[in-house]
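I would love for you to help me understand the pair of lines that follows before we discuss the fold together.
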Amino acid sequence: MPQPPEVAAKAYLLIDVTANQVLAAKDPDMAVEPASLTKLMTAYLVFDALKSRKIDLKQTLPVSERAWKMPGSRMFLDPKMRVPVEDLIKGMVVQSGNDATVALAEGVGGSVERFVQMMNEQTQVLGMKNTSYRNPEGLNEAGHTTTARDLGLLATRLMRDFPEYVPYYAIKKYRYEGTPAANDSNRNLLLFRDATVDGLSTGQTKAAGYCLVATAKRDFPNVAARRLLSVVLGADSENARANESQKLLNWGYSAFDAVKLFDAGQPVLSPSVWQGKSPVVKLGSFQPLVVAVPSGTAAQIKTQVARPDPLVAPFAKGQKVGSLKVLRAEQLLFEVPLVALEPVEQAGVLGRAWDALRLWIK
């Protein structure tokens, strides 16, 4: 595999989001303090509350004393204000405002304590095995830790589950009316340097160092838009975290080619089915099947299907039925599940009896 560049950071991870593959990593499971990268989970729960209509963007939320008194980076709210949810999201995302974050946590969870409980419950749902939250904003607190791998998982799911809200992360400048004009710039320097970068989040405390989760989307002829995500933790400065992230993203795009194997919803194969109303089941994926391979090696890619035999109905739409193995020179690169693209109902009694007899003779 291609050798990644030297990256001056405690830990890092580079993911090809389009292909769902890790391209490079250094100490991805080392426990680190997430600092304001914590706000990615806060945003996940806020976006989830928007999607399920528990709150809406135009609704206003009060600013509690607790929110107003938050130290660190702020949106500069005060308790006399009632602020629309959309502005609080921009304050949290663009300005990394701890006050806006607490106001949102109280608005969604009822209290900060309940919201933190929701955050930790969500880590279980997403499979973030090495993450434990103590607050919604990311200030240092004993036991408030995560890993590069968990952050990569969270950021990937945030973009996949809430594409309609991801554009907030590309906003370069924002401030709420009546707050200081000097406090208007997104802390993600890559937004100002690279037109293909459209997110996501920065973090910095003395213990955590300078951290950045960055994502870029670049167009390529064979796969259209290809998205990469870098997680850089514990860099030495604001400039260093941007430089190291840029280095990783550029390397990922140049060292690997993206190869589209199948379109979303395109059958990979349609094997025969026993005891079903349909004679076959169409197997494939509801996402495009894309693989990232070292540059210039696309011609060496082979695929193999692994599936049970015989296949006996019924099959529900989306049910995992087998897997597609992607190999290069006999080396397994990765394996993706194949699901039933359409349901196959069980045949009637006569059809089932006839197929049972045929199976027995077989």
User: Anything to note?
Assistant: The chain has a mean pLDDT of 94. The longest helix spans residues 238-255. The radius of gyration is 24 Å. DSSP finds nine helices and 13 strands in the chain.
